[in-house]
Amino acid sequence: MTISLRNRRAGAAATATALALASLAALAGTATSASASGRATTATATEAALAPASAAAPKAVSPAASGDPVSVSASGLTLPRPTGPYATGRDTLFLTDHGRADPWVPAAGPRRLLVSLHYPARPGSGGEPAPYMPEAEARPMLAQRGLDDPEWPGLVAATRTHSRTAARPAPGRFPLVLLSPGFGTPRATLTGLAEELASRGYVVATADHAYESTGTELPDGRVLPCAACDEVDAQPDEAGRRKVLAAVATGRAADFSFLLDRLTGPRPAWRHAGTIDPRRVGMAGHSIGGNAAASTMAADRRVDAGVNMDGAFFDPVPARGLDRRPFLLLGTETGHAPGADTSWDEAWGRLDGFKRWLTVRDSGHFTFTDTPVIGEQLGIVDPGAPLSAARSTTITRAYVTAFFDRSLRGRPARLLDGPAPAHPEVLFRHP
Fold first, then answer.
1. What is the DSSP code (8-state) at residue 393?
2. pLDDT of residue 383
3. Higher model confidence: residue 74 or residue 92?
4. What is the 3-state secondary structure (H, E, C) of 163-214?
5. What are phi and psi of 3, to 5 degrees?
6. Minimum mean pLDDT among 75-84, 103-112, 192-201, 419-428: which range?
7. What percent of the chain has pLDDT over 70?
8. Residue 17: pLDDT above 80?
9. Residue 369 and residue 188: Cα distance in Å, rounded?
10. Does the predicted TM-score (pTM) go above 0.90?
11. Where is 281: in which H helix or E strand?
């Protein structure tokens, strides 16, 4: 795989290559996992099964030429503007589950979650745009993968979003969508999708799972390392690594059941919880987060529909199915066409409700996250995943939204009926 950096200071060829690879790994969270000690190690099972072929930023394209909603700001990085009719707000919750010890660091005490809540808001309300991510999280995400350019953490952390802090919610009650990021990857990397769904009338709760990201900043300023990455690295073989990753998926299912209790229970933790319709709940995830969507549905009947974006099923779909609830498989053509990942073939046979298996030509594992948009603006080029950031954004938004509109709102979703001329990269698979 040849990767190059554009719009960067020139240097020796070896240095440029090392920077490019480190930058790609940092933004994509690819097949390197950072240990608590700071070393970068090759995580063969950690993301290799989840990220076949290439991992992240597509070649740069002109947003104006493409006609799709990727914008590049001269003053910094920016996410694509949401396309729905609602303005969007964002809150952050810090929750502690006193009924469970942390599975990766039991000595740390109860399980803790940091949750971003995006929601439909009244136009013109709220303060400044919500920050993308703390620099304290961006720094280890980059530095622990070998990138020492002091400009990059600030650039990534300052990525402009389109949601306002302290915004007043729009009137009404809205379906809830839970989002779970990839293994070792901060929740911020699903911000673009969260904002899009919120602009289309969903409340979206995206969780960081303690000790499962390169860095999670707590309200007191402490930054938790990826202890789960260390646990994967410590396994002697592939079977051991897969067992740990299955535990990640089932542990996240417990996290989201707890989160549902705190959002929809009798004493909700969120001040705007009255905007949530608890009878309409969906979940989507990227990579191991996609596996967690199915694991959560298997464990919690409150989740009505799920989406797996390019994640292997380390924790298999139960043989009994998911009680006829709908599920969408959305993945890369190289890694998740029929026969490429047998866990998808097995899951397809067990899914017993409305289901679709879609693959996207020219995509990479991180096509379905903010990585292509941020990488493209930073000049990262990966010829192995040539789908542009604009097309990555448009496809992910269109199909995930259509699926939840159908599953949670009962709306027609012709996009899911078969191939669409507007999206020639998307293939319908019928094994």
1. H
2. 82
3. 92
4. EEECCCECCCCEEEEEEECCCECCHHHHHHHHHHHHHCCCEEEEEEECCCEC
5. -130, 140
6. 75-84
7. 81
8. no
9. 9
10. no
11. strand 276-286
**Which residue type sits at 93?**
L
SS3 call for 261: helix
Structure tokens at 303: 């989740």
- Copy the structure tokens of residue 241: 């690594």
**What is 129-141 written as a DSSP string?**
BPPSS-HHHHHHH
Radius of gyration of the chain (CA): 20
Burial of 231 (0-12, 13-18, 19+ CB in 10 A): buried
55, two tokens: 């991992």
CB neighbours of residue 9 within 10 Å: 8
